[in-house]
Design brief:
The protein is built from 17 helices and seven strands. It has about 300 residues and is α/β, with parallel strands linked by helices. It has a five-stranded parallel sheet, with helices on both faces. Strands 6-7 form a two-stranded antiparallel sheet.
């Protein structure tokens, strides 16, 4: 059994699933399946029964730390072959779980960390619509406009996840900068080959290998049958299903996604410019921080048009 030497550590809704899939097509790279193991945290989940998530499912579908499962379990998630020298996982929760940076440094101080970032307001809006797929009852999960105007607690969670300065500083205070690679999701999308070349060099694997860039991203949409969607999620997040072997759980996940798409009424709408304008000031410090970190202008992140 092996331990990882790199981790894609965030942020959610920034292309980490695509990145993990691209890397998985490299013969010298092994990425765990499932990709999100979230081992380095003792976080118990933000929502308990009786709250937004609890009233719907009785569980927290956003996950929690799995450190309690122990090192033998964690090691069992990695079975690279003899040619796979870059071994990794992709747990986006490490970015914003408050104890992950310290735990990673304590147990794996030499680990390489990759972060994908995105326009913070666009990321907030994207995560809202990603969760909309769960089919929550509207009394728990109002429209995005209502969330903004009511200062909904779920909106505050989205905003916290997009608070890049707070989260990245935890890692840069502990890890040498040469062990951290911060990229932008728009760069990965526009120049996939160039960015993957850069990542391969960071991981010390052959950058000239032709990778498979075919990946069906996690599409956001409005569920037509919310009750059916809620039942599906309630089943999929039960302990009995989550503890199934990967060989069974993965096909079930693909089947659930097909059903989701069949039951989709339409894709998500565009973010209203007025709402974007209301949210932007909250991220000015984070935008400046990323600009300074990368040495580039991010005026596009400040644009009302997004």
């Amino acid at each position: 059994m092996a331990l990882p030497n790199f981790i894609i550590a965030g942020a959610p809704k920034c292309g980490t699933t695509s990145l993990a899939d691209y890397l998985s097509s490299h013969p010298e790279v092994f990425v765990s399946n499932p990709k999100e193991i979230t081992f380095f945290s003792e976080f118990k989940g933000e929502f308990e029964r009786g709250s937004l998530i609890g009233d719907e499912f009785g569980v927290d579908p956003l996950g929690s730390g799995t450190f309690y499962k122990g090192w033998d379990w964690y090691k069992s998630q990695f079975n690279p072959n003899d040619t796979q020298r870059a071994i990794g996982e992709a747990s986006v929760q490490y970015l914003y779980f408050p104890d992950s940076a310290e735990m990673l440094y304590k147990f794996m101080p030499d680990i390489k960390l990759i972060f994908l970032l995105r326009d913070p307001v666009a990321r907030v809006f994207s995560e809202y619509w990603h969760e909309n797929r769960y089919g929550f009852k509207k009394k728990y999960f109002p429209s995005f406009k209502e969330m903004v105007h009511e200062n909904h607690p779920r909106l505050q969670y989205y905003i916290d996840v997009s608070s890049y300065k707070t989260h990245l500083e935890r890692f840069f205070k502990l890890f040498p900068s040469e062990q951290i690679l911060v990229l932008l999701s728009e760069d990965l999308r526009r120049d996939t080959e160039g960015q993957m070349n850069r990542i391969c060099k960071f991981l010390n694997v052959d950058p000239d290998i032709k990778l498979d860039f075919k990946h069906e991203s996690n599409q956001a949409y409005i569920p037509r049958f919310r009750k059916l969607q809620r039942v599906m999620e309630a089943v999929s997040f039960t302990g009995a299903v989550r503890n199934l072997p990967v060989s069974i759980r993965r096909p079930l996940g693909k089947l659930k996604e097909r059903i989701r798409r069949i039951g989709a009424s339409k894709s998500r709408p565009e973010l209203d410019r007025a709402l974007r304008s209301e949210l932007l000031p909250q991220f000015e410090e984070d935008i400046r921080y990323v600009e300074d970190l990368l040495g580039r202008d991010l005026s596009s992140w400040r644009s009302i048009d997004g």
